[in-house]
Model the fold of this input.
Amino acid sequence: MFRSEYADVPAVELPIHEAVLGRAARFGGAPALIDGTDGTTLTYDQVDRFHRRVAAAFAEAGVRKGDVLALHSPNTVLFPVAFYAATRAGASVTTSHPLATPEEFAKQLKDSAARWIVTVSPLLAAARRAAELAGGVEEIFVCDSAPGHRSLPDMLAGAAPEPAVDIDPTEDVAALPYSSGTTGTPKGVMLTHRQIATNLAQLEPAITAGPGDRILAVLPFFHIYGLTALMNAPLRQGATVVVLPRFELETFLAAIQDHRITGLYVAPPIVLALAKHPAVAGYDLSSLKYVVSAAAPLDARLAAACSRRLGLPPVGQAYGMTELSPGTHVVPLDAMHDAPPGTVGRLIAATEMRVVSLADPDKDLGIGEPGEILIRGPQVMKGYLDRPDATAAMIDPDGWLHTGDVGYVDGDGWLFVVDRVKELIKYKGFQVAPAELEALLLTHPGIADAAVIGVHDADGNETPHAYVVRRPSADGPSEAEVMLYVAERVAPYKRVRHVTFLDAVPRAASGKILRRRLRDQRPDQPREAGERP
Done:
């Protein structure tokens, strides 16, 4: 068993809004959130006051403890206000990809039993359609303004009393993001107030920030990585968060230059742009002190090229998953020069890890031996919403969460992730479940069977590749028709990028798709560890 070298931290027995904003008065008039496009600024005093006013308006509208509120928005300075207002009113927040189709969003609304939606006017039509499809949604609020809908800015003028809700941080769910886990379709991940807040305390000794630090929030807040690293953690510590609604390279670079950004938390595609795109040379990025990459594997050579070009310490990595609130490993900011290339970091405080044999899961492995990574700690999720079997498959009776990732630990405690058992595709840090795409492909009248795996493109991004069996009695679709069929029904990051037609999908006697055999047809692609033909 591997244990963190950091001293244990006590569990944070606070609602997440108190854990993050409990020190807002200390930071007072310091800027908390800045819109990186138009400069709109909210101070810590304002964020604290505004989220309380919006919580009062939510409660007046009927939001009660145990309700689920869906937050359906790109990054804005009001996203954190909406999130903390909802939790203060007693609701759980399920975050949704703003580019999800109405049908995809409706599935999440129905599965989570969401009664309320907060969105922005450009997404209002999609939110309305999703609410109609799902049923059960009582009202849709907007962060900006739209006729016929209550807006968060209007709520600031309300006079309703602030709700006094008895929240049990240990049991009550604060966030309900959706994750595919190690396989299957997306499931609601129940993260309690205590789990999220304690994970912030666990990360704090390794990833420090404070007044004067400026963090650029370009990765989405709706993703657990952005929610933690770009929203909760810096606001807990008094840093300033500069918010961008999406990644556009020139806007991103200008924001670093104009707002004197000190820290970047990004995914590998942004590291690639920083390392290789010619536009980078046209901006003053000298304010940067460090870059941390997570959400997907980062090639060590690409990391080195980025740090050389920017004149920074080596790009650090972090590791975790939605089911872990999300962090378990990180390269500490003060150890970036010491970390070996390719490592995803060391165990954070109060976290334990085992590496077990793929052939014999009861056998623990030692230094330098690759096996499945198991994690135990206060950040392990409460479970999957209404899916006890899936929860039991993920977390064993001793509390160990089976990540589905394969890695090894060196003699100095650095973790290296080298493969995975799980089937999940990571496209630019976003989860794509093969089973979800396979089920969709099978709804096409000309497709008899289908399998999906992830393949790597020239830039190292993993993209969905569909293997399709056409129906013999129908006019079979072309590659372009298959890709269009999927593209019309899923969010952009889930789109199939390649199609191969087969006579039959390789399957075991149990019916399980033998993805390894599909990978064997592509010798340039890494194989899934642990899968048996």
